[in-house]
Amino acid sequence: MIGTESISRVIGQDVYDESGSKIGSASEVYLDDETGQPEWVTVRTGLFGTKESFVPIRDADLTNDGVRVPVSKDRVKDAPKIDTDGHLSPQEEQELYRYYGMGAGGTTDTTRTTDTTRTTGQTTQSTAGMAAAGTDTRRTDTRDTGTRDTGTRGAVGHDTSGPTTDDAMTRSEERLTVGTRSEEVGRARLRKYVVSENVTETVPVSHEEVRVQREPITEGNAGRAMDGPAISEEEHEVVLHAERPVVAKEAVPVERVRLDTETVTGQETVSETVRKEQIEMEGAEGTGRTGRKAKDALDRDRDGHVG
What we know:
The protein is α+β, with helices and mostly antiparallel strands. The protein contains six helices and eight strands. Strands 1, 2, 3, 4, 5, 6, 7 and 8 form an eight-stranded mixed β-sheet that branches. This is Conserved domain-containing protein.
């Protein structure tokens, strides 16, 4: 059950259907004018979140992950197309009750949490009474009646869009929080393959050649010279040798190769749209007419300037 104290936690949260499928993000919460309890939440859907659909929040649950509503995603997708202008008329609310098969919560108007009903001091009518008469409280305005303001000056204001709280409203704004996350952007790998190339080396080689040596007969070789017949035929043979190049191959390790990473830090600029609430004053004291907006005066007070 989501109460009024949880409204600020609902806005901006992800909305999931009864099966856990994400529908979209919560945009605005609408309160029942009579009970002051949250009745509807508008959910931004579509590819860029440009479409808003009304979803019942009466029996929804607020978890750490977001808001879980008791309807299906397809049901929300085909919901009646109703403008999110800050207020639901009784007819629009009854149409939503019928579509979602809910018991009607009465014929009271439903107002967004940031809407304000315009009334003057002498012709102020209760919200419940106006809703019972089928009157759109958002458009109630007596600025053209010329009625003088006879209300008590200095009275404490009250919340016209829901239950009475105190004499002030809270202005909130979104703050941009920027961080980083690590994600995979690519892969690199080492691949080993074989290529062939010609290698030329110069190797010295040697060979034997025959040459004839002649020596005279001396006392030292006369004995050997006279060995054998005096006249005969004879042959002598010499074996010649030569070197030839020989090639052999062997695989030897030459280096180790591995992949490593290096972190390089740079700067990136990001931009995003944030929302903030503005509070404006309407009405002129003692005139009975709605005066011009006094946004500039409020801004001066907020900045500490004296008017």
